[in-house]
Write a structure and sequence with these properties.
Elements (H helix, E strand, L loop, with lengths): L2 E11 L2 H11 L2 E6 L2 E5 L8 E5 L3 E9 L2 H11 L4 E2 L7 E6 L5 E6 L40 E9 L2 H12 L2 E7 L6 E7 L7 E2 L3 E5 L4 E8 L3 H13 L3 E9 L5 E6 L5 E6 L3 E2 L6 E4 L6 E3 L7
Parallel strand pairs: 1-4, 5-8, 9-13, 10-19, 14-17
Antiparallel strand pairs: 1-5, 2-3, 3-4, 6-7, 7-8, 9-14, 10-11, 11-13, 12-18, 15-16, 15-20, 16-17
Bound molecules: fe (ii) ion (FE2).
The site of fe (ii) ion has 5 residues, from strand 9 and strand 14.
Length: 304
């Protein structure tokens, strides 16, 4: 196994205080401001999940947590990169490279894990029609921003999706869980790629690759504690009059309950919970593009 998980996203924003406040209201927590970079963390054990640096608005790239020192050495050799001391919070060793679209990729091993931050309440014990799991207790989540547990996945635009899908497969061992194609199966429009963790279960997609005229970010997605955490987060963001993009609904690819917001520079971020898990036995499925595969329920995708 080469990669344990995706760990952080790297942005540039012209107004650091505006995006910091937005992401805190969205459900992240302060770590530090170092020079002209703002670091934010989730409630889980990652040293940080989001970094943005003062500058012209841009999605710069993403960081992965490498599975072992040997895997770090193996990947660095593949990319001809030098392993250095990691300059980010948590430290450890890292190297960086770029993918064929010019996206910055960082690979970190040995960063110090943080103590997870307790969040209000346990995940919901559901009382569904056939199984009552919450007995003698009321479901009363507090009014508060979402309690984001971790960065879950990133969806990127690429002008050459087929080439990028193959690149991430060959170099990082990722495999498509599901593919969207055009008129015939060979014209791939988008892919939902999972990490190769053998028999271990992993997210349906850690990276989604979407064909588009130019490289860019479709969205960065953060896992919330549970369904109430997505819903309450929506209410807080709405009350603060942030720009809503799409949701709440359930996706088709990955099955997540989703809710999208737009940050002050126009980048999309997603709250989600209840995503699918896959492993090495999962077969790649292929579907033609269509609005019925964008979501299973919820409001229509804006503009379609
Ligand atoms: Fe997503």
């Amino acid at each position: 196994m080469l990669i344990d998980d995706i760990e952080y996203v790297i942005f540039r924003h012209p107004d650091l205080s505006a995006v910091r406040q937005f992401m805190i209201d969205y459900g992240l927590l302060d770590v530090s401001q170092e020079g002209d970079s703002v670091y934010l963390r989730a409630y889980g054990d990652a040293p940080f999940s989001y970094v943005t640096t003062q500058g012209e608005a841009a999605f710069v790239g993403m960081g992965f947590r490498v599975a072992s020192q040997e895997a770090l050495a193996q990947l660095a050799a593949r990319f001809g990169a030098d392993i250095e001391d990691c300059r980010h919070p948590g430290g450890g060793k890292y190297f960086h490279t770029i993918d064929p679209d010019g996206r910055r990729l960082e690979f970190v091993f040995g960063a110090q894990r943080l103590q997870p931050v307790p969040c209000d309440g346990a995940p919901i014990a559901w009382n569904d029609a056939h199984a009552k799991n919450r007995l003698g207790r009321y479901q009363r989540p507090k009014y508060a921003p979402s309690h984001i547990q971790r960065l879950g996945h990133v969806a990127v635009f690429s002008p050459a999706p087929q080439q990028i899908i193959e690149w991430y497969g060959e170099n990082l061992g990722m495999k498509p869980s599901e593919l969207i194609h055009g008129d015939n199966e060979t014209s791939v429009l988008a892919a939902f790629m999972h990490l190769n963790k053998g028999s271990e279960w992993t997210d349906h997609h850690t990276l989604a690759i979407v064909g588009a005229p130019a490289p860019g970010l479709e969205h960065a997605s953060f896992e919330c504690r549970d369904f109430d955490d997505v819903g309450m987060g929506h209410m807080v963001m709405q009350d603060k009059q942030y720009q809503h993009r799409w949701g709440i609904g359930r996706h088709f690819y990955g099955s997540q309950i989703f809710d999208y917001w737009t940050d002050p520079a126009g980048f999309h971020v997603e709250h989600y919970c209840d995503g699918d898990m896959v492993n090495e036995d999962t077969q790649t499925l292929r579907y033609p593009f269509g609005r019925d595969t964008l979501l299973q329920w919820g409001p229509a995708f804006p503009g379609i």
